[in-house]
């Protein structure tokens, strides 16, 4: 691979990584999947709109059959392994050691802009493979204007767990991310994120090496100092945000208030895990991603036992809450002083009006899209990639 030249200034020592789940685990997975029963048909699960009561029986039945007989995990591994991947050991300030996985396209160009793409839940580094694919076909390693770094956040998929004996928050994720980026030899870098990744970008911007941030998610409470009208298009987005809060956010309170219980429940059956996660890929998107792409995410979560390990972040905002009862995008402590950009996708779970977003920091770039949802990197990789490129050209 031509994109695997680690900067000579790196102080960390990443080791190349290849994803290969042991065959015994693959066989066990298929056995569990085959033995996992479907729920009986009910009034609720025979409705056609998943936004009404959740995933329906037909979707689950057809997906289970395809997962068992048509889906080939080994072929999906081949595709994933076509991207350079690494694991690196990072020692935290308090002595904890994290093994952090990341995919990367390293540039050989002087002054290439390092970008950390940060995923959320129920995502993983897989969300950004389409963008990486566009970039590696668009540029050679010699003329790629960016270093593209896509970490697996602590507790997610191929990275190690948060500590067992202490709390762990987005501030901790940001600290590990900064250690990763500076340890790879980057004096400055740009953060990009949606969902948990966007939450992480707020404290990440407080680190000197983080030069700017681009977000495609900025969920916040209505600011008192918002100036400017809210367009009719944005009003529809606010209606969607209200609907999400009223009818679709119960999962978040379960994650935040009873993470241990739901962790055990979904670790017991791959079909249960699929039902819980696939609902989000259906209802949080403009167009439902291909089934195989959803199965990639769920299957990787299953093999890496991710679900119980990765939902810790919900306790911070849906359990004990933050000190002032709001998330980081409404927290004055994390108001961006550095330049930041915002991409508006109308089928996001909570698309925020531009006049609101402007109150959360030094907004220097924005773009409104007419389609796309929560998983923008998967749904609209060309659009999000163009947004990031345009933003980086302005601030780097």
TrEMBL record:
Active site per database record: 195, 314, 374
Keyword set includes Hydrolase: yes
GO molecular function per UniProt: epoxide hydrolase activity
Stretch forming the signal peptide: none
Segments forming a coiled coil: none
Stretches assigned to the Epoxide hydrolase N-terminal domain: 15-128
Protein name: Alpha/Beta hydrolase protein
Taxonomic source organism: Lophiotrema nucula
């Amino acid at each position: 691979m031509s994109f695997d030249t680690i900067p000579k200034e790196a102080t960390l020592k990443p080791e190349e990584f290849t994803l290969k789940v042991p065959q015994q685990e693959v066989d066990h997975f298929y056995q569990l999947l085959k033995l996992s029963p479907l729920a009986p048909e009910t009034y609720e699960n025979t409705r056609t709109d998943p936004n009404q009561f959740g995933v329906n029986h037909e979707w689950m039945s057809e997906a289970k059959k395809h997962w068992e007989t048509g889906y080939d995990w080994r072929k999906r591994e081949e595709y994933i392994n076509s991207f350079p991947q690494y694991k690196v050991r990072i020692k935290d300030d308090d002595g904890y050691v994290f093994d952090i996985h990341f995919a990367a396209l390293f540039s050989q160009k002087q002054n290439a802009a390092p970008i950390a793409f940060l995923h959320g839940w129920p995502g993983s580094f897989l969300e950004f493979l389409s963008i990486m694919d566009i970039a590696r076909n668009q540029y050679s390693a010699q003329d790629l204007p960016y270093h593209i770094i896509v970490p697996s956040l602590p507790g997610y998929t191929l990275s190690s767990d948060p500590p067992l004996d202490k709390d762990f928050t987005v501030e901790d994720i940001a600290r590990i991310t900064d250690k990763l980026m500076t340890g790879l030899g980057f004096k400055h870098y740009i953060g990009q994120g949606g969902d948990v990744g966007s939450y992480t970008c707020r404290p990440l911007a407080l680190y000197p090496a983080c030069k700017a941030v681009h977000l495609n998610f900025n969920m916040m409470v209505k600011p008192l100092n918002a100036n400017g009208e809210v367009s009719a298009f944005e009003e529809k987005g606010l209606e969607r945000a209200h609907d999400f809060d009223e009818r679709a956010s119960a999962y978040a309170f379960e994650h935040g208030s009873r993470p241990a219980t739901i962790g055990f429940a979904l670790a017991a059956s791959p079909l249960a895990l699929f039902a819980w996660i696939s609902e989000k890929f259906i209802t949080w998107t403009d167009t439902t991603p291909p089934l195989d792409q959803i199965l990639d995410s769920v299957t990787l979560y299953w093999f890496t036992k991710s679900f119980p390990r990765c939902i810790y972040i919900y306790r911070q905002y849906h359990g004990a809450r933050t000190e002032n009862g709001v998330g980081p995008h409404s927290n004055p402590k994390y108001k961006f002083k550095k330049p930041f950009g915002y991409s508006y996708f109308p089928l996001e779970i909570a698309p925020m009006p531009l006049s609101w977003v402007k109150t959360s920091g030094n907004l220097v770039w924005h773009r409104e899209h007419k389609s796309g949802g929560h998983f923008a990197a998967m749904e609209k990789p060309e659009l999000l990639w163009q947004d990031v490129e345009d933003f980086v050209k302005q601030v780097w």
